[in-house]
Design brief:
heterodimer, A: mainly alpha, Arc Repressor Mutant, subunit A, two-stranded antiparallel sheet, B: alpha+beta, Immunoglobulin-like, 7 strands, 42% helix
Chain lengths: 243, 233
């Protein structure tokens, strides 16, 4: 029984999944993937949403080159790193460079004997490495001009299969549905904040709302979207769709 | 930062709205990389914002277009009552009303105000002196005229005026009026005539209270007259 087979998620009730939360094995939360909805006859198409617990086994499999673990590691932390770096770097290429450098350094440390003393803090370790890489990037970019086109749009994702495309389209439609359920005022408010990037206080004053109203508005929309998003994330779509 | 703090303070939303100070932002990021629930939450929020930015320009533009067409519709409906289908009957009704008032109502009122009137005469007796309650017959056209004889007691303070209060069978004050008193030293009786138009009368028991009002404003009830009215029409 190889490592990949052992890692294949199996159907379990949510109660069983929760009871396994403390074990070192992956915590399973299964919902039908878009593939399973569209092609029910296909056996286990797509992956189930997994809350992996970062433990010694996980790190071991990662270092051993287990494809499933590596795929999860890269997709999981790439999403978070991009969100983190978007608020700090303008250029898409710079973001990707920092991401790649972070992964390279993390894996380099993990592969050393006793590299990561506390596997449970893998997430924090990745974040710290990213902070260091970012600091070095700032230093180096202040000395030389970046050749990257700042503000250039992200290149389109390639290699997406039909299931990825369908899932991405469902995500877009779901966001549109959620937006259309909002009032016109709320839509204009979101546009002013996120698209026009106007000053928050100025926008709140103009619309006659408090800052808390903005947060609650975003929270509710996000919660509604999360229901669809959880289904989507079971099918690991191209990263540009996720983040 | 722990998980419950992150959730209670809506830190994920604050992060997406770029409201966090650098320290709190770093602390939240450190937590997110460790907490898979918050990581999922942040990823969902970031993707929502990203996709919303794609849709919002078209959606808001469409809102603006529909808002303009609704305003136009509202303007149209606001002036819809100027349309001939509505305006002509409305003006016609108004014309009829004005014509009726000018040719019927006002002449009748002028006529009744400028011509002498006949009314049955009845004598009121003071209830305070134990007189029996009289009954008067009246009709709507003529009403009733009531001569009122006030007896002035010698020890009464001289009145500057007399106030009259007429109460209906329901006890409601339906009319009040006043007249200046005659000069002091005159007769001990003062006579008035109270003409009540038929239009305000109904069958039932009425009472008329007379109050003496001094120059200083002091009020003293001096007489009460109780009578019954029987309407013939």
């Amino acid at each position: 029984m190889n490592a990949a087979h052992a890692r294949r998620p199996h159907r379990a009730s949510p109660r069983q999944c929760r009871s396994r939360a403390k074990s070192p094995r992956p915590i399973c939360f299964q919902s039908p993937t878009p593939a399973e909805i569209l092609y029910p006859s296909l056996p286990m198409a797509g992956q189930a949403l997994q809350f992996y617990s970062f433990d010694a086994k996980y790190v071991e499999d990662l270092c051993a080159g287990d494809s499933q673990t590596q795929e999860h590691f890269v997709s999981y932390f790439t999403a978070l790193l991009r969100i983190k770096l978007r608020s700090r770097l303008q250029s898409f290429h710079a973001i990707e460079d920092v991401c790649q450098e972070t992964f390279a350094r993390v894996l380099q440390v993990l592969r050393k004997d006793g590299g990561l003393r506390q596997p449970e803090s893998l997430g924090a370790f990745v974040n710290n490495v990213c902070n260091h890489v970012l600091f070095e990037y700032y230093r180096s970019s202040s000395r030389s001009e970046s050749l990257d086109a700042e503000g250039a749009p992200e290149p389109a994702a390639t290699g997406a299969d039909v299931l990825d495309i369908v899932s991405a389209r469902q995500i877009k439609e779901n966001v549109l549905v959620i937006l259309m359920r909002l009032s016109k005022r709320d839509r204009s408010l979101l546009k002013a904040i996120f698209l026009d990037e106007r000053d928050r206080d100025e926008v709140c004053q103009e619309f006659g709302v408090e800052r808390e109203y903005l947060r609650v508005l975003l929270h509710r929309a996000k919660q509604e979207f999360k229901v669809e998003y959880v289904k989507h994330i079971g099918n690991q779509v191209s990263l540009s769709t996720d983040t | 930062m722990n998980h419950s703090e992150a959730v209670e303070r809506m830190t994920s939303e604050r992060y997406l709205l770029n409201e966090l100070t650098p320290d709190v932002r770093d602390a939240f990021e450190e937590h997110v990389f460790d907490c898979q629930e918050c990581a999922l939450d942040l990823r969902a929020g970031a993707l929502f914002v990203r996709e919303a930015k794609v849709h919002l320009p078209d959606v808001v533009a469409s809102d603006a277009r529909s808002g303009r067409s609704k305003a136009k519709g509202k303007r149209t409906s606001r002036f819809s009552w100027w349309r001939p289908a509505f305006a002509v009957p409305a003006f016609a009704a108004l014309l009829i009303l004005v014509g009726y008032q000018n040719f019927v109502t006002f002449p009748a009122l002028r006529h009744s105000a400028n011509e002498p009137r006949l009314a049955p005469l009845a004598t009121l007796r003071s209830a305070t002196r134990g007189a029996a309650r009289p009954t008067f017959t009246a009709d709507r056209t003529h009403g009733v005229a009531l001569p009122v004889d006030l007896v002035i007691e010698p020890d009464m303070a001289p009145a500057a005026s007399y106030s009259f209060d007429l109460r209906s069978p329901q006890g409601k004050l339906v009319w009040t009026g006043s007249l200046p008193a005659t000069a002091p030293g005159a007769d001990s009786e003062q006579s008035f005539s109270l003409a009540i138009p038929g239009g305000m009368l109904e069958s039932g028991a009425y009472s008329l209270t007379v109050t003496s009002v001094t120059a200083q404003g002091g009020r003293t009830p001096i007489e009460q007259y109780n009578f019954d009215i029987v309407m013939t029409n």
